[in-house]
Amino acid sequence: TRFWIVIPAAGVGKRMGADVPKQYLEVAGKPVLQHTVERLLAVHRVSAVMVALGADDEFWPELPCSREPRVLTATGGKERADSVLNALCALSAHAADDDWVLVHDAARACITPADVERLMEILEDHPVGGILALPVTDTLKEVENGTIKGSPDRSRIWRALTPQMFRYRALKEALESAAKGGLAVTDEASALELAGQSPRVVEGRSDNIKITRPEDLPLAAFYLERQCF
Ligand code: CTP
Ligand code: MG
């Protein structure tokens, strides 16, 4: 079985509010997406990286990684899940049903190759697959109209990160059936859960942040400059 990477990179970065999509903002000397692709290509067992791009993306060809032999592109869709599904369809010419696919957000540029390798090693013999995740550290509140209704048991709650690693065919079918059922899934694991599967969690690193708002940029720059891989 081979390992493929899918990078949804077709978002507009509304919460960032910049004049270009956030994956093209420069952080620590390079565009966010260049960091992300480089770090995933540094994982030697990866056969290729499939990047889902916005239909009118004029920035991608400017990135050095766009000319790498192990990099392929597809056109993204309306929601993140549509972009991932389009990328999986484009992979159908290359991937076998049982191959592993690791879906990783373009906006998570601080991913370390070592974390990706650890996820691959821990899950490669697992029947379903799983995700990098982190136990929450804050106390949680369930809130209705500004009023606290309860405090869920924190020891059972983890935050979902990416990569999320599943078998090619199982992932494609789970996303297709969620889409058909009109169910909005914000990550791949949710789609597998809806299909009755029980994915694993593998503890990730807290510096694997999703660059979302302007204040995330200096934090990402700090992590990117400090990590050596
Ligand atoms: N993404 C995508 N296709 C979409 C929407 C999002 O490929 N239709 C990608 C984004 O490019 C990003 C990842 O999914 O790398 C995670 O999404 P998010 O952080 O929400 O990015 P945006 O949707 O671009 O940001 P916002 O929600 O603030 O607009
Ligand atoms: Mg979004």
Automatic annotation (TrEMBL):
The record marks R15, K22 as: Transition state stabilizer. GO terms for molecular function: 2-C-methyl-D-erythritol 4-phosphate cytidylyltransferase activity. It holds the Pfam family IspD. Keywords: Isoprene biosynthesis, Nucleotidyltransferase, Transferase. GO terms for biological process: isopentenyl diphosphate biosynthetic process, methylerythritol 4-phosphate pathway. It is an enzyme of class 2 (transferase). This is 2-C-methyl-D-erythritol 4-phosphate cytidylyltransferase. The record marks R154, K210 as: Positions MEP for the nucleophilic attack. The keyword Transferase applies. Pathway: Isoprenoid biosynthesis; isopentenyl diphosphate biosynthesis via DXP pathway; isopentenyl diphosphate from 1-deoxy-D-xylulose 5-phosphate: step 2/6. It catalyses: 2-C-methyl-D-erythritol 4-phosphate + CTP + H(+) = 4-CDP-2-C-methyl-D-erythritol + diphosphate. Gene3D superfamilies: Spore Coat Polysaccharide Biosynthesis Protein SpsA, Chain A (3.90.550.10). It comes from the Bacteria. Belongs to the IspD/TarI cytidylyltransferase family. IspD subfamily. Its EC number is 2.7.7.60. InterPro entries: IspD (IPR001228), IspD/TarI (IPR034683), IspD/TarI_cytidylyltransf_bact (IPR050088), ISPD_synthase_CS (IPR018294), Nucleotide-diphossugar_trans (IPR029044). Catalyzes the formation of 4-diphosphocytidyl-2-C-methyl-D-erythritol from CTP and 2-C-methyl-D-erythritol 4-phosphate (MEP).
